[in-house]
Amino acid sequence: MDEPVLLTGAGGRVGRAILRGIGDEYDWRLLDREPLTGQDVPAAVDDAETVVADITDEAAVREAMEGVGAVIHLAGDPRPDAPWDSLLRNNIDGTRTVFEAAVDADVETVVFASSNHAVGHYETERAPDLYRTDDDFRLTGEELPRPSNLYGVSKAAGETLGRYYHDEYDRDVVCVRIGNLTKDHPPREYERGQAMWLSHRDCAHLFDCCLTADFDYEIVYGISDNDRKYYSLDRAKEVLGYDPQDNSAEYTFEGEPKDGR
Amino acid sequence: MDEPVLLTGAGGRVGRAILRGIGDEYDWRLLDREPLTGQDVPAAVDDAETVVADITDEAAVREAMEGVGAVIHLAGDPRPDAPWDSLLRNNIDGTRTVFEAAVDADVETVVFASSNHAVGHYETERAPDLYRTDDDFRLTGEELPRPSNLYGVSKAAGETLGRYYHDEYDRDVVCVRIGNLTKDHPPREYERGQAMWLSHRDCAHLFDCCLTADFDYEIVYGISDNDRKYYSLDRAKEVLGYDPQDNSAEYTFEGEPKDGR
Description:
Chain A is of the alpha/beta class. Helices cover about 30% and strands about 15% of the residues of chain A. Chains A and B meet through helix 3 and helix 4 of A and helix 3 and helix 4 of B.
C-alpha cells in the first residue's frame, strides 16, 4: 500500500501487537488519545506520524483520515463492563465518525475491531461443551449477534454501521471479532480462554491480511487455530488468506479446567 | 393481561393504528412527547393514563414503566433521513433506556418497533424483481441487518439491544420490522410499497398477537399478506399466531409500476 495506514487506538493492546508484528510493512499514522510511550512501544512508532486525539473528536479524526489508503479502527472503550454512556459515545458514535470520515476522505478500506463479546451469549447454553475439542459447534460470522454485555452490543452496532457504509458507499469493510489476545501463551487453566486465544503473531498477520486481501463486506473471527475453537476460521482463511501459526493446544494445559467465563 | 400496557410513541402513526384497532382490549398507559390531540385520536385514549415525556427522559420512562405488564416501544425518530445525532439519542439510547427500565420494573414482555429499513439494502441488487409475485426471494428475520440508512442502523441496534436484554435478563422480546403502514389502501403505483404494505387492521392485530403469544426472542416482519411480499410471514404466523386479513393485490394496480424506491 502506497498511502499510509491510519491505526486508531494504536496504543492499546491490539494496536501494539499489530505494530510489533507488521510495523515495518506499512507507513503508519497512529492515533491515540494518549501519547504512545512506555517500554513496550514498538520501534515502528519512531518513524510514524502520530496524532493525539480522542476518537470522539470529529475534526481530529477527519484530519487524520486525509490521504490514507486504509484505516484499522481499534479505538473505543475496551472494557466489557464499560458503562453505557461511554460505549454509546466512544464505541458507537466514535465508530460512526470513523466511517463517515473515511467515506468523505475517499478511504477505500476500513478494518473494524469487533469482539467475541458481540456473540458471547451463544455460549450460554453450550458451555463448557463447546470449548472441548470433540465438540463441533462453530460460529461462522453469518449468525445474528448475541452480545454478552453492552460492550458487545456496541461492537455489533459497529458491525452494522460497517455493513451500511459498505452497501451505501461501496467501501471494503471487514469486521474482526477478536478473541482473547495474550502475548506469550494462552491461559493455561481456562478452557474458554484457550478456545478463543489469539497469539500476537497471528493477530498481526490477520490484520496484515485485512490490509492486502480483496473483499467486500466480511465478518471474521480473530483467533489462532486452536483445537478448542468454536469460531470458524473458514472465511478468514478463504477470503483473507489468513494462515494462523499458533494453537493453544501446543501449550500444556495444567490443572483442572474451569467452566464458563 | 391484567396490568396496563405501556405504549411509547402512542401519538405516532403506528400507535394510533394500534389504539384504533385494539384500544378496547387493554388498559393503556400512553407515553408521547406531545399530548395526544387531534381529530383522529382513538376513543381508547379517553380512558387511558397518559404521560407526556420524551423517551430520553430516563426518570419519566422509569416512572411510566412501574406496574405495567408489557411495553410496546414505538417512540423514536421515525424519519428515514433523520440526522445521526437524533438517531443516536432517541432511537439507540432511548431504546436502551426502555429496556433497562423494563428490567428494573420487572416487566416481562417488550415489543420493539423495528423497521424494514434495517434490511433495506437486501433489495439493492434484487429490485425490482423481488417485488414481483413470481419472485420467491424471502427475508426471514434470521439474516444479518443490511440497513439502507442510518435510521435502519439505529433500528438494528435496537434489535441487538433486545437480544441482549432477552439473553441476559430473560425478558420476552419481539422485534417487528414494520413495513409500509397506510390507512386505506396500499400505494397503487409503487411496487415496493405494495410489497411491504401493512394495513391498519393487520397492524393492530399483529401487535395484539405480540401481547398475547408465548415467545422468547423473535424478529418478525410486519406486513399484510401481500402477493408481492419478499418478507416471510412464517415466524409471525407460527410463533405469534398472526393471521393477516389484507393483501395489497386486492387493490387495483393502476398505471405503470415504478421501479426501486
